[in-house]
Recover the amino acids of this structure.
């Protein structure tokens, strides 16, 4: 069987493959603390600049973060933006999708999340992380539903 025929067979099943990939992606979703962190890191500049807003309230007031730690969180925001702009994360043609499956699983299956959360965890003390987890357990689900 020629590669062209294989490609045509896959293209004929594109909707099924796409559905399966979306199901796989959903099943590999992040936990609440990671989802909340991604939610925070996706916000616009005003979110971080608002002196009475959620970002400063949580990280500065609740967790007692130093200015250096706050700057490191903003650096993590830039890191996440670079990850999101990675061309390998864009939708690939169907034939290339099998070559990209390992990369997809690494990105969506937790390795990307683990790397980002390791960087986040390295910024804070264990006490500050405990405060983060406590706050996120209480307020995170509500915040994730808010489109600020």
């Amino acid at each position: 069987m020629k590669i062209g025929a294989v490609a045509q067979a896959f293209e004929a099943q594109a909707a099924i493959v796409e559905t399966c990939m979306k199901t796989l992606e959903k099943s590999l979703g992040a936990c609440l603390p990671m989802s909340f962190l991604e939610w925070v890191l996706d916000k616009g500049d005003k979110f971080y600049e608002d002196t009475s807003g959620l970002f400063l309230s949580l990280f500065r007031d609740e967790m007692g973060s130093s200015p250096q730690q706050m700057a490191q969180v903003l650096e993590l925001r830039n890191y996440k933006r670079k990850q999101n702009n990675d061309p390998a994360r864009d939708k690939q043609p169907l034939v290339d999708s099998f070559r990209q499956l390992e990369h997809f699983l690494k990105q969506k299956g937790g390795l990307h999340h683990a790397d980002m959360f390791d960087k986040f965890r390295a910024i804070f003390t264990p006490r500050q992380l405990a405060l983060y987890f406590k706050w996120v357990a209480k307020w995170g689900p509500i915040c994730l539903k808010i489109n600020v």
